[in-house]
Amino acid sequence: MKAVKVKVNIFGRILILVILLLIPIIVLYSYSNRIAGNVVGEQIKSSGLNQLTFFLYQFDSVIENLSMFPVILGQDPHLREYLDKTGAPLPDVLAEQARITGKLGLQSVSSAWSNDLTVVIPGQSKVLSSNIYVNGSSQWSWDGAVRSVWTYEEDRSRGHPTGSFIREIAEPANARRVNQAISLFQVRFPVQNIQELLDLYKKDKAGDPFLYRQGQDPIRTSTPDTATMQPIIMALDNLDLNESGQERVGIEGQQVLVSYVRSGQLGGWYLVDYAPVGKVLAPITQTRNLFYISVGLLLLMSVLASFLLYRNVQIPIVNMVRGMQRLQLGDLTARIGYRAKNEFGYLIRRFNEMAEQIQLLVEDVYVEKIRSREATLKQLQSQINPHFLYNSLFFIINSAMLDDRDSVVAMSQHLAEYYRYTTRVDNQTVTLKDELGLIGHYLEIQNMRMHRIEYEIDVPDSMMEEIVPRLIIQPLVENAIVHGIERRTEGGRITISREQDESYNRIIVQDNGAGLTSKELHRLLAGLQEPMTDRIGRGTWNVHQRLYYKFGEGSGLTFSEVPEGGLKAVLTWNRKHNAKDPAVLGTKGAEGDRSAVDRG
User: N or C: which end of the chain has fewer CB within 10 A?
Assistant: First the structure.
């Protein structure tokens, strides 16, 4: 049973093509969107924790500076003198106390945070402080514990409760209660300092930072978001917190990334901040949804466009394809009778005109081929240099009269090989080996006639199988002899060498003959790009054009001066380029001649 072959029309093909184009776009976008979301999420985590750590470092630095105030007070010489002096008159004592109180005030205002510095002398029940509500008072918790680390408590000295952090240093240092100490130095700062710093950190951020310690009310900003903060505090109460970390907390269906860092100064207190991940990623999510909606609309529009193409394009194309098929089968009389009412009507009319022109051109080509073959034969016949042949035959006659049998045989063999090669017209491309073989015969003929020519052919076997146009080197060698070496009584030397790289082959024909002037060389190079004239000469123009048309851009003939005298001709052809047009190659190859190159 034969399988049923399903033929898809243009409508189905366009629809399948659109879907196939959209699939990789959707997959790639979904992948990139997911990667972007992950990257943004990681950046939020890293950035939030890093910013919080840096902020806490500044926070702890200020508190650490405040921690040094009691130490500085304990070393003050005037305070030490006051504590050690006994039995002084009351006016002196009062003056000394006023001076110490002034120093406490100056030391207090030296910090960016508002704070109170207090000196307590339990033995005399005296209290000296920068806080005017405490200074000079004898009311103190004399049997209370010495708070050697930062401790949070409410300060009621100003008539209303205010949260404060307190730290004390006692003398001697091993005193654990106030009444056991000779003196006590205290620093206290209100939580308003922390609130102002948190307000500054909160600015331009989506979160709401706060200071947290398990079992105590958090220290919030001046405008706290308690609805969001309360679930976070409850979640933190149930966690075993490390020095720093991050946790995700769900609040009203949204994920919140909570970052926390433990304070190095305020034992047990954590600086906490949060970022609503959903809000941060909302633009990415909206862009993704917009993309999917756009893809859906694009697919719908593609279906509509495919249907219109099927309706308005399919029928005209079918008629045009049938007409082309008839033309392809050789029916040059094929014409399309269908008349379209859109742009295809113009194409069909042009197709009919094109078919008619093709029919006329094909008929003209047959005639032109006959003319081309006749011209090629005439060109080859005209290029057989009669003077070269006459001179060679006279050499054979003279050698025979002198009974020089070896010279007669050698000249005859070389001359026969030379003309057998140059008159062959069946194949216009040969190997480099065959072409150099012709050059060897030609140079031997010229050397036997003049006895003034030295030559060297330095081309490796690896290049011998390269394909070149027939008679592409011989015109340059003849040019070197006739216009370069033959004019010199002492003769000369011709060197044929090669260069080869990944892209190009080069054959270099160099002589030490008369050479050209700069003006003559410039005129010769410029003439290679012009249509052939009697002034330019057929040999150079043919060689250059044949190489260019066979091997393409970068191929051709160039000339340059030799510093020691003479002229260098370089044949260059592209190793990887095929012939542009076999017909052109054949025509140009047939025009290749062995006439001397006009250097003038």
Answer: N
**DSSP conformational letter for 452:** -
Render pLDDT for 509-546 as a digit per residue (tens, 0 to 9). 999 888 888 888 888 888 887 765 544 445 777 788 77
| Burial status of residue 163 (CB atoms within 10 A of its CB: 0-12, 13-18, 19 or more) | middle
User: Among 84-88, 336-340, 574-578, where is mean pLDDT lowest?
Assistant: 84-88
- Among residues 430, 454, 428, 442, the alpha carbon closest in space to that of 385 is found at 442
DSSP state of 485: I
The amino acid that residue 427 corresponds to is: N
Within 391-491, strands assigned E span 429-431, 453-458, 467-469
Split at pLDDT 50, 70, 90, the class of 360 is: confident
Name the amino acid, one letter, at 408: V
Tokens of 10: 């243009």
Question: Which candidate, 419, 422, 505, places its Cα nearest to that of 464?
Answer: 505
**Residues 257/246, Cβ–Cβ less than 8 Å:** yes
Q: Which tens digits make up the pLDDT trace of 87-116?
A: 667 777 788 888 888 888 888 888 889 999
Name the band, by pLDDT with cuts 50, 70 and 90, for residue 596. Answer: very low
pLDDT of residue 534: 45
> Cα separation of 350 and 7, whole Å?
29
| β-bridge partners, 309 | none
Query: Cα separations (Å) of 341 from 313, 317, 334, 337, 347?
Result: 11, 13, 21, 13, 11
- What pTM value is reported for the model? 0.46
Nearest to 203 by CA among 51, 316, 64: 51
At a CB cut-off of 8 Å and minimum separation 6, what does 491 contact? 450, 451, 452, 453, 454, 485
Per-residue model confidence (pLDDT) at position 588: 37
Q: Is 337 exposed, middle or buried (0-12, 13-18, 19+ CB in 10 A)?
A: exposed
Alpha-carbon gap, residue 511 to 496, rounded angstroms? 9
Using alpha carbons only, give the angle 484, 485, 487 rounded to the nearest 5 degrees.
85
Question: What is the number of residues in the chain?
Answer: 600
